[in-house]
Amino acid sequence: MKNPLLDNSGLPAFKQIKPEHIEAAIDFVLDDNRKAIDRILQDSKPYSWLSTIQPLEDLGEKLSRTWSPVGHLHGVADSEELRKAYNACLPKLSTYWSELGQRQDLYDAYQSVANSPEYTSLDTAAQKIIQNSLRDFRLSGVALNEADKSRYREIMQQLSKLTTQFEENVLDATQAWQKHIIDESQLAGLPPSALALAKQMAEAKKLDGWLFNLEFPSYMPVISYADSRELREEVYQAFCTRASDQGPNAGKWDNTAVMEEILSLRCEVAQLLGFDNYAEYSLATKMARSTEEVLEFLTGLADKTHAAAQQEYAELETYACTKHGLDSLQPWDVSYYSEKLRQEKYQLTQEELRPYFPVPSVLKGMFFVVEQLYGLQISAKTDIETWHEDVQFFQIHDESGRLRGMFYLDLFARSGKRGGAWMDECLVRKNYQGELQIPVAYLTCNFTPPVGDQPALLTHNEVTTMFHEFGHG
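Structure (tokenized):
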């Protein structure tokens, strides 16, 4: 069977990737990598960048290229079959990375190059790779005794499983809830765009009336505009109690025990490696130098904003109670009366801005900003395989016409797609001995999808989110 995940010659062939390809590909690459690492360590003495580090780095990237499209599909196009294959690979990958991180001979090879005269002649990127690798060996427990190494491997396997279970529980709980409404009077206050989306969602399921769910483009208009306080409360409670022991699906996808176990295991692995807590362990790979520095930043931020936040909330509470006769301001009232107050003070709502932000115009404006700042030209490329018909693909060229990067853009919420917005790596940039690998990113959002034949219209918040994720890319 030809396996598209084993073809690393170009971009992932998303339309050809099937769940049955996943475990077979990972098994093959892990076995092949283990054999290759043994050969490198045996045959490349004295160790050097060219004979040892570079080929080892290439093996890591080969595995990353195989797994990247799988992990991405798990986030944007989940299915029962894909989830089963994905989860079957997690313990294998965790074991592999723990094994490598605890191999003394592998650590000695990196340390040997770091201590050699060659090291000072390497460029900054190569030196950084070596130093980061030595750090990661220590964080993987290379210096632990055998019993503690074994426990470390067990913990990392459990954490890999639990963090994935957490995400899947949230997705399942989000998709399990929906509100079908026939009586239009219950929808008073909702803008035409929200009603059109709800009508389209109902029609897709061959239902009359309007259908709402907990995906953000459906949830946010209800919370912000629905005059029915009962409807706002129902939707709010369903959204905020997802994957918990509360709410309409209480206990069904409850993450309480999952979170407790994650926290316990994180604390244990941190202490196993000599840290006082998991926060210290986490900061070992980050720019912040201490937990005190992080807390000082956060408390300083709170000190500067708390008074203003209290004042704004008091103003909102007074407005809702005096102008609209509310007995007390509840969480499901905040967005609704904030919109009312904004409209009264500024004669402006988020919804009124949508016509100014059709997706094609937003993209054109965002790309224009990048061109003005950096001289980069961004253009669509239409002959690229993607995982969904809504996904777009773009190339980035510099002023001389040289290709500098590419990215997938997946903007709209849909079934099987994790909520939120994020950027991730498809391919990393590499430039070694004249061979340049162009970087490729995934940019993922969950915006309001188009209704009918009209382009999707974004809120101002969605526009800033798009710029944010594009900035990561």
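The chain has a mean pLDDT of 96. The two ends are 35 Å apart (CA to CA).
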